[in-house]
Amino acid sequence: MVGGGAARRAAVAALAAAMLAGVASAAVYEVGDKMGWTILGSPNYTAWATSHTFHLGDTVVFTYNKQFHNVMAVSKASYKSCDTSKPMATWTTGNDSVVLKTTGHHYFLCGIPGHCAGGQKVDIRVVSSAASSPAPTPEPSRGGATSAPAPHPNAAPEALTGRSVAATVAASLLSLAAAVLV
Ligand SMILES: *[C@@H]1O[C@H](CO)[C@@H](O)[C@H](O)[C@H]1NC(C)=O
Ligand SMILES: *[C@@H]1O[C@H](CO)[C@@H](O)[C@H](O)[C@H]1NC(C)=O
Ligand SMILES: [Cu+2]
């Protein structure tokens, strides 16, 4: 009896620890790395974004001089046309952290006139949360004939469902762990 209880307790505690480790592994990326969020030096934010793999729960930080720039989350259409008239969200502190809560594309641009057209825009694609299995998905190499990005179906509803299920499972595991450990 006592031994079984201890074993169960240990198993639950290990599970809870694993869950917490998973949560803690969310990464933080500074947009543009050391260059930050700017037009000076014409950082290539497309190259920056494609050189990273973003997962659910990761954070991107926009650092910039707030006298000269801002950050807007926009639709794909607004991103493409640099339309700053209907942002879904705007940040202006100069040190803005954005948590990536859905899979798929997150489009950001600077709302100061001319800056988006000058390249101050970034498309951050969040891959579905395979964070624990680092199996690289081999990209079929293309001939480079086209620069048009492949259309991505909007996976937001599925992502939300998956996320809330994961959160529920995590929450019940943690309360189970708490109950057993008391
Ligand atoms: C930025 O980088 C992307 C991906 O590497 C490349 O396709 C594109 O031509 C670059 N843009 C400029 C303006 O250099
Ligand atoms: C930006 O904010 C984070 C906390 O959100 C803080 O740790 C960091 O020092 C800030 N950076 C600057 C340059 O203010
Ligand atoms: Cu700007």
Automatic annotation (TrEMBL):
Which keywords are on file for this protein?
Answer: Copper, Glycoprotein, Metal-binding, Signal
What is the native source organism of this protein? Dichanthelium oligosanthes
Please identify the protein, giving its name as recorded.
Mavicyanin
Q: Please provide, alphabetically and separated by semicolons, the GO molecular function terms listed in this UniProt record.
A: electron transfer activity; metal ion binding
- Could you tell me which residue ranges the Phytocyanin domain spans? 27-128
One CC-aspect GO term = plasma membrane
Tell me which positions the record assigns to the signal sequence.
1-26
PROSITE patterns reported in the protein's UniProt record:
COPPER_BLUE, PHYTOCYANIN
Compositionally biased tracts (Low complexity): 145-158
Q: Which InterPro entries match?
A: BlueCu_1_BS, Cupredoxin, Phytocyanin-like, Phytocyanin_dom
Q: Where is this region: Disordered?
A: 129-158
Instruction: Give the stretches traversing the membrane.
Output: none
